[in-house]
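A.,

Following up on our hallway conversation. Structure tokens first:
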């Protein structure tokens, strides 16, 4: 599929504009301000990688093979799915993987745009350094997911509506700490869990290697958010803190309630409502939806944002058990921890 286009051929459907506005801040103090940020920036420079040469793009991928184990398919016991031919079932598998990776792709674009905003709006020079390196990381992530989807799966889905809503909020809110909270703590925290899950399950050396490299970068991005915001909320007036609580609760619900079955149902002509319900009720998916928050919850706690309201909301979402879990330990378990 040739997607090369002349600049003049770009049509409105290829573009999507939102108006953003925030204070850009020069910083005339060039010394370090936040402990740990310089070290993180050094680490980022050491860990740069080139996806073009470091990944083996020559690997053959059969997009209809069982890259994700069949047991993980929430439609496994759904009548209309069971009645499908083997070929059609393979088509559903293909669609599901393409759908998930497409959301990663679009999320990465949102991350790239957010990181570029952070360069401008953060009030410390070392955070500007770090955010600049993150822009490069995110460009690479967009690049690799796009390439895998285009060359290996040859199928791409549009962005999920809830993910789009959250990205819009992050990009348009003028307060810089919301950009961190939304992107570094929530979106990237969720992404780390989803990547970790895919990494452990996937049976394809290229996607595994790609995810491994991306996860190493993402783990630093989450750390960037935590280091930057640590202590920031300690003396915040109650009304301002309330805005942060609302944001965390609403964004968490938005991400939990992504209607992930609709596109797949449409591909096969299945009933949207039935597929949605099945995915909501499936024990595999329920466990997965909780597990997604295994990094978000402890980091919210670390930032001093586990207020009674947030705690209640997390308890209701059945994700409060992660409050004291250790994201570094999770990194070590995935083999991506480095010094
Ligand atoms: Fe990324
Ligand atoms: Fe990231």
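Then the amino acids I'd put at each of the 339 positions:
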């Amino acid at each position: 599929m040739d997607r090369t286009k002349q600049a003049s051929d770009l049509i409105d459907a290829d573009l999507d504009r939102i108006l953003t506005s925030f204070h850009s801040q020069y910083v005339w103090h060039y010394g370090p301000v936040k402990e740990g940020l310089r070290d993180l920036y050094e680490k980022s420079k050491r860990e740069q990688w080139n996806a073009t040469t470091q990944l083996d793009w020559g690997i053959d991928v059969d997009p209809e093979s069982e890259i994700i184990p069949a047991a993980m398919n929430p439609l496994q016991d759904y009548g209309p799915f069971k009645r499908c031919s083997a070929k059609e079932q393979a088509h559903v598998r293909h669609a599901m993987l393409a759908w998930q990776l497409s959301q990663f792709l679009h999320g990465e674009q949102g991350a790239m745009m957010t990181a570029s905003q952070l360069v401008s709006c953060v009030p410390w020079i070392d955070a500007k350094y770090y955010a600049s390196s993150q822009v490069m990381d995110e460009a690479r992530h967009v690049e690799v997911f796009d390439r895998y989807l285009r060359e290996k799966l040859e199928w791409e889905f549009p962005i999920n509506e809830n993910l789009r809503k959250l990205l819009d909020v992050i990009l348009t809110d003028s307060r810089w700490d919301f950009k961190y909270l939304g992107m570094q703590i929530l979106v990237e925290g969720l992404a780390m869990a989803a990547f970790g899950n895919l990494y452990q399950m996937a049976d394809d050396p290229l996607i595994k290697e790609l995810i491994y490299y991306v996860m190493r970068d993402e783990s630093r991005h989450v750390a960037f958010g935590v280091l930057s915001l640590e202590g920031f909320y300690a003396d915040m007036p109650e009304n301002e803190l309330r805005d942060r609580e609302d944001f965390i609760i609403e964004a968490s619900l938005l991400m939990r309630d992504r209607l992930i079955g609709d596109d797949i149902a449409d591909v096969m002509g299945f009933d949207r409502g039935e597929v949605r319900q099945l995915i909501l009720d499936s024990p595999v998916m329920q466990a997965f939806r909780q597990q997604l928050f295994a990094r978000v919850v402890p980091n919210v706690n670390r930032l001093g944002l586990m207020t009674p309201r947030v705690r209640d909301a997390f308890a209701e979402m059945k994700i409060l058990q992660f409050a004291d879990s250790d994201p570094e330990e999770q990194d070590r378990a995935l083999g991506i921890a480095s010094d």
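DSSP finds 15 helices and no strands in the chain. Curious whether your intuition agrees with the design.

B.
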